Here is the input.
Amino acid sequence: MSPVRILIIEDDNNIRRFLRLALEDEGYQVAEADCARRGLIEAASRQPGLVIVDLGLPDDDGKSLIRELRGWLSVPVLVLSARDREEEKVAALDAGADDYLVKPFGVPELLARVRAQLRRGAISLSGGSSSQVSFGEVRVDLAEHQVSKSGQPVHLTPTEFRLLAALIKGHGRVLTHRQLLLDTWGPGYADRGHYLRIYMGNLRQKLEDSPTQPQYLLTELQVGYRLAGMRMGD
Amino acid sequence: MPPQRPDPDRLLESLKEQEAAAKRGKLKVFFGACPGVGKTYAMLLAARERQAEGVNLLIGVAETHGRRETLQLLDGLPLLPSRKVEYRGRVLPEFDLEAALAAAPALIIVDELAHSNVPGSRHAKRWQDVEELLAAGIDVYTSLNVQHLESLNDIVAGITGVRVRETVADHVFDRADDVTLVDLPPDELLIRLAAGKVYLPDMARHAAKNFFRKGNLIALRELALRRTADRVDEQMRAYRTDQAIATVWEARERLVVCVGSGARGEKLVREASRLAAKLQADWIAVHVDDPELSEGAQKGRRQALEVLKLAEQLGAETLTIPGAHVAEALASFARARNATKLVVGRTLRPGPLRWFSGVANKLAETHPDLDVVLIGLEKGKPSHRPQPRPAATLPWSGYLWATLACAGATLLAAGLLRFFDLANVVMLFLLTVVLVSIRFGRGPGAWASLLAVLCFDLFFVEPRGSLSVHDSQYLFTFALMLAVALVIGQLAAKLRLEARVAVQRERRAMALANIARQLSGALKQDQIVGIAEEYLGPLFDAGVTVLLPDAQERVHPCGNRPADEGVAQWVYDHQQEAGLGTTTLAAASARYLPLKAPMRTRGVCALQPRHPAVFDEPEERRLLDACLSQIALALERVHYVEVAQEALVNMEGQRLRNALLAAVSHDLKTPLTAIIGLAGTLERDPSPQIRHELTAAIREEAEQMHRLVANLLEMARLQSGGTRLRKEWQSVEEVVGSALHQLRLPLARYQVRTDVPADLPLVEFDALLIERVLVNLLDNAAKYTPAGSRIRVSARRVDEELVVMVEDNGPGLPLKDADKLFEPFTRGESEPATPGVGLGLALSRIIVEAHGGRISAENRPEGGARFRFTLPAGTPPEPEEE
Here is the structure.
């Protein structure tokens, strides 16, 4: 199997260099672009397996680049952004990005995210037909609507289950509040962030060992939620 | 003889005048004896010359009256379109002041200075438009005929028999920078007239025959020449004064004019104005307000006030002084003001103004040191000015009551006569007279005296029922009784009047003292506005609105009363009153007065009085002015208090910024130094073991810096103002989790425990900011406790609050005054071993307080530190049931 090619669209030389070194060290092939225009050309010609996009590009705001990429590219898109621009991150995720990294970030964090996204891409490519999903000690049967933790059945209300199913469908992507609310409650509830907080709290109580230090049902403050450590099948 | 040096006061004055003149535009008047001498022609000719010099000019108004030569001159000059004003069904072209001010040329031509604007225009007179143009720094060329000068109005009317209504105040003419006399000998003018080259205004056409007689023209020409010569003379003297050429420095003369009422008063004032101009003297027009006048003859008083108004227009200072004895009051006033001459009128016949002549004589007798100038006044024609109000009705009821009182006294006396002597009963009548005088004043008092004597004669002296007297002794009694009754009555009446005057004066003094006291305690603008409305309203029986300027110098009304902001803005910009009863924007329903303070105008006060005459009564007016200046002073004081406070806050801010810079530069440089050093060591390619340690250290330092920078950014964002909290109903559990996740590396070496109940309701806050508070508190705990210490985060709902605590079992807080920790850049120890500015806690406090909560720190009794903050719990929304 040929190594996965990763496209980095980032205008800062040093950041681009350290990204390339870290990724090449992991065995990926790396293509680079320093602006949105070149990025689009590279993405079309190189057929990358994953794209890393900086939101602060000189010739574009990143969001429209993502929207354009999403028109013909289904591979995961990872966004790099500054911490204090929550709305920007939400907009990028809503535009079709799969995950984001807050600057400054470390190499281990970057590699973990890249691996997670590539794994997810592989699963969705292979069809992911199994209705059995697990994370940690938790097993979920999507078809049977059954959830168990450490072998003990856990009772979820229908809404809690819908919310969990939405997170599972995301395959480890960060799902914005809006997306989750639409998936779980339907249109008309998009601005009721407090629903999510209550039901996510319930899910953490039922599924996490330590709800204040969750391992799987992770909070991205002011952005959304993500399910980490998910495996298909048993 | 002392060396001749200019009087410093006068030098200062001329300096001020020059300074004001430098900012103002220059006024050039083309002055002529009568219509047809060619003023407009001369003016346009001059304008063309200026245009040839490259001056940016504009023709505002040029009355060519269709004359071809004049029209030709207009060719090629830029013309300001006139404003079309509809008035009584006709559309009249008017000078467009707004457009002229907006165009702001260097020079503007405005013909016919004496023109009266159509009602509804900004100003009543064109010369006021010109004043505004000058004030805006625009030079003006204008034209004027001699008969339009206010002070020469009477004389011209006397010569020609045609009275001109459109007049220009003399001071406008006197203050003109340049006067060019446009002269044409009468014979040539008559030839031009015969040739039809002179335009005659409609008004004067029927009188033209009389007007353009050669005799009239010669007289008018002489007047114009003289007036111009006076000006030249004055200029020469001014020059000599400036250059200290004069041999004698005499004190400036001051005239005091005693003003009566009606047309005679007007003439007196005009004469005095001319006299003052000739003498180069200041002049003061004074009306002595005899308390007697306030009793019955209100009409005369109002006329006198009208005359005072005219005097003010002619440039006099005007004043009403109270006093029963005109001569005494005048003399003492003249002394007090150091006046050299007293001007009084003299009528030929006795009448309502008889006291003028009496006054002159009395003055001459009692104050021989004062120069008294008598102005001959013709037998007065009735005033042509409309009376502001009908005369007050005479108090007939007083006479009725006096009659009734005498009847009562007679009945009582008849009863008492059985017990007492006739001589004693007489006293009863005297008592009646005194009481009537006190109650109803002088007239009824005198009437009662007469009645009392009659009743005494009719009913008590033999033969009763008849006026005849048997005993001639009684004639003496009657005479004496009448005299005593009259004297006592008049004294009593006077006492009563003086008491009333005193009461009024006291009312004013009290009002002023009250408002001053209230204002002195005011600390805010709204308070001052409130006081102004509360006190001025009842005092002047008027609706009061105060308008204050905003940062853009636009005035807006405070409070709910509506006000015409346009008028108020004009008043504010020009520092002159306008509106109701003035000649500027007179259509407004209220009078707008500027609130002038020593430094600048602080606002505008709009008064909507029930009786507009309030503003014409000098006493009331002075009281009003005093009140307004008190208010303006208070506004200015408050303004400067604010300025001072702002300066203090700025200084404090500056101090903080400096401390911040020092602390930040220290705390940034420390990790930077470490990073650079560590990276340098790495370059020398050490062993893998050391390399690992070094990179871990670099990363730790960099993350420390990152947190510091994050705090700094957040602080800057919060303090720059305008930041709104993004409050949402949040889960405390999630925020605690997120904070712990952020700090997972530094906290890895500590035992962290959380205690957040699962059923803790949502709380409304800005999640990122509260996360920052938690990160700071946790970071602090990690920094100041040894590795392996226990750190506990807990949240509880207590009553109406959410209480969050971060505790550790480290060495605890070193400060007794734990609150100091939350001030920027305080750290427990003086020289920190651990990096990180005290910024974190200061920021935490700002965030918590912005949410309406409190933050505090203390040492736990069992050892270690405890940081605690609260947030209002509120009532979270319930999700719909499933």
